[in-house]
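Hi team, as promised in this morning's meeting, here are the two structures we talked about. I've kept the exact order from the run log so nobody has to guess. The first one is mostly here for context; it's the second one we should focus on when we meet again. Sequence first, then the predicted structure tokens.
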Amino acid sequence: MTETAHARIDEIVELTRRAGDPARAYAILAEGNTSLRTAPGRMLVKATGSSMHTAARHSFVEVDLERYWEAIDEGPDDDDHVKALFEEARTWGHGKPSVESVLHAVCQRLDGVDAVVHTHPIAVNALLCSDRAELLTDGALFPDQIVVMGRHPLLVPYVDPGLPLARATARALDEHLDRHGERPRVIYLRNHGVFALAGTAEEALSITAMTVKSAEVLNGALAVGGPVFLSEEHAARIDTRPDERLRRALLAG
């Protein structure tokens, strides 16, 4: 384990337990996973089969991000190749990295991303498993949604988890960066769940909490008629107001 990983293991345990708190209902059983950047080319990530709620030090492994990035960029994507990747890339720990660790590696490749939380909240998945999933990215309903989640979350179609999903998301992120000039803070995966991308663990938790609130508000708006999104002018104003930028920084911890 790198020195930085040793220093951050307790941080990721706390992050994971908070995100997996049964009272939040973001994930149950062995659902969901988290990652934290350690050394420039390493990350800690939850091992497969472990519960977020009861996470402990042994629930995590450290992996070589460079090895992951090489596999994402080229080569086969079959199950045997992914299994070999997990064995070769693990630098510490005894568990097997989650299959979604490959998508964590895609997120950790982006500037400003240090912490990633992946969950399956019921309110969010109710929309992601419906024919109205696009509404999650069609606009913002209220100011705090913009402050915490940014103006442009990304929606990715359902793809088999592992290298296929990681590659599809990487392509979608390239298109998103070209279109908007900045990375998303939220990635929605159809029929799957949500990834919160952040600079700190606290910010990742705040983003996750706001995705749940936003989905609940959207579900409620649909129940009484339909959503009314903020205008582009008003959304842009919220995104750039000095006081809101300060509040965003404070929420990031």
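And here is the second protein, the one for discussion:
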Amino acid sequence: MRFSLKTSDEAQRILLEMKDITNITPNILSRYAISLSLAQPEPVSKFNYNTRGLEFNRHILTGKYDVVFKALISHKLQKELTDEEYYPDYIKAHLERGIRLLHAEYKYAGNVENFLVNLSNYKFGGNM
């Protein structure tokens, strides 16, 4: 079982840029990103992202919500996941997609205040 994953270099660039802008740490931004990805109606696609970016240990990335993230991903897939499938495979796929969604949300908002308000009002509703 693996307990760490590395993001793509593009994901690292976005996370560090957003950290500088928002003052939110990359692991917290990543949790938002995974959540945004899970809220999408389309299934996450298999990925071929490089591993030249930030390294996250499982307990830092998902924290006390690890079981929740695994359950949400399993529910989305409508299948039980092994730990090896869940982390790093599906977490990385949702993280990579979600980081790009998070960045788009920031660009749409135009500033930190609007971005944080939009995130707090995001409807995660029934498409999970």
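Starting points for discussion:
The chain has a mean pLDDT of 91.
The first helix runs from residue 9 to 22.
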